[in-house]
Amino acid sequence: MIGKYKPYPEYKDSEIEWLGAVPSHWKVCRIKNVATINPSKSEIRGLPADSKVSFIPMEAIGERGELDASRVKTLSAVLTGYTYVADGDIMIAKITPCFENGKGAIAKNLTNGIGFATTEVIPIRPELSLDTGFLFYVLNCNPFKFIAESSMYGAGGQKRVADSFVAKYHLSFPPKSERVQIANFLDYETTKIDTLIEQQQQLIQLLKEKRQTVISHSVTKGLNPNAKMRASGIDWLGQIPNEWTVTKIKYIAELTPKKSEIEKNKDMVCSFIPMEKLKADLLILDETRLIEEVFDGYTYFRNEDILMAKVTPCFENKNMVVARGLVNGVGFGSSEIYVLRAKVTSLNDFLYYRLQEDVFMEIAAGAMTGAGGLKRVPSEFLNNFQIALPPKAERLEIVEYIRDYTRKFDTLVEKAQSAIGLMQERRTALISAAVTGKIDVRSWGVPQASQTNKEVAA
């Protein structure tokens, strides 16, 4: 896409190492020369305390400029402890990982034109309202993000971009008419790309829903559409094939196997699995520990055990897997992981898929105990959950069918995700090229509808 746009006819040295050459008629300045960082609340001090204003938590700010300004509070409730913004201000997240993920938006349609946002955003007010779009894209270009990330202060998950960094950031600043043209160009082109990304995301969601439907039907009704059915005796399960038996999980699998079976092997190396490395159908095996280092305080498991997150939101995200490829066949992990060891090896994969079934997930989530982000699935619930179990041969057939079917779905999802990645790269590259003067869009005009359709199809 960038290749079809020509560079400017003449450039000059910006004298800023990372910025390099800029169009000869552009000037180089700092953001603080063309915008105000953190506008003062003093400009609204005369408003009544019960005035309605928009409330903007971090989750209301999107990663492609989206903003949900529908939440409303009184001025007195947010005047202290929140960040003031007004219509037309630019907001960018300053804390990791929100900054790296591109959270930022232009404040629009605020209640009474006023908003109060999380303290983890930096508000920027352009001196000229017509510069809002251009400056928003400058703050979303690769050079700004790269340098800002390297300047972050703080430790771990609390690193932040300093307000002073934003104020002192150098940018190449074109004449007024070009700033407007560049913003209009990028609005148009990024909207096209965002539409295509949204279509791919919708496709991924449909594929995942279809995948889940296949799993749920297979593990509760079997593969034979002509099988004779009978009542299961369980309201939510309904009819099951005649040959299937109803049982409880505790009768077919052991929950939390005892560590005593490896107590004599504490000098052995094992795989180590913190919670973030247990994903849906994926176990990240890049850490090891000596067993003696993790024997106390961590959950023990071995190859072929089923691992399942028990805490919210990891449980709802279906972070579970059959453990395979563990170092020395042994692993230890987070105490927030349940381990289920099938009493018959041929049961483990079937039980793994059975635990992904939607009704089980819904009932288990409803049975969680605890408060807020520390709600967990009780062990008694899991042990006593009733399932319908097919004969061994049919179990193995169902597992093989699900593996084959989901493999096809997963391939399609990977292709869609790859397409999204390429479009996102194209989007950021286009923004960076336009706001740094690498491409000349002065002659650009909104394409005709027929031409636009051809471009989208291409």
Element layout with pairings:
Layout lengths: L10 E3 L7 E3 L3 E4 L4 E3 L14 E5 L15 E3 H4 L4 E4 L3 E4 L10 E3 L7 E4 L3 E6 L5 H7 L3 H10 L11 H6 L1 E4 L2 H46 L7 E3 L7 E3 L3 E4 H4 E3 L13 E5 L4 E2 L2 E2 L4 E3 H4 L4 E4 L3 E4 L10 E3 L7 E4 L3 E6 L5 H7 L3 H9 L12 H6 L1 E4 L2 H44 L13 H9 L1
Parallel strand pairs: 5-10, 17-24
Antiparallel strand pairs: 1-2, 3-12, 4-11, 5-6, 7-10, 8-9, 8-11, 13-14, 15-26, 16-25, 17-20, 18-19, 21-24, 22-23, 22-25
Q: Overview of this structure, please?
A:
This protein is of the alpha+beta class and 458 residues long. Among the domains are: 29-171, DNA methylase specificity domains (Adenine-n6-DNA-methyltransferase TaqI, Chain A, domain 2); 245-389, DNA methylase specificity domains (Adenine-n6-DNA-methyltransferase TaqI, Chain A, domain 2), CATH 3.90.220.20. 34% of the residues lie in helices and 21% in strands. The protein contains twelve helices and 26 strands. It has helices at 75-78, 132-138, 142-151, 163-168, 176-221, 249-252, 291-294, 348-354, 358-366, 379-384, 392-435, 449-457, and strands at 11-13, 21-23, 27-30, 35-37, 52-56, 72-74, 83-86, 90-93, 104-106, 114-117, 121-126, 170-173, 229-231, 239-241, 245-248, 253-255, 269-273, 278-279, 282-283, 288-290, 299-302, 306-309, 320-322, 330-333, 337-342, 386-389. Strand 1 and strand 2 (21-23) form a beta hairpin. The longest helix is centred in the middle third of the chain and has 46 residues, at 176-221.
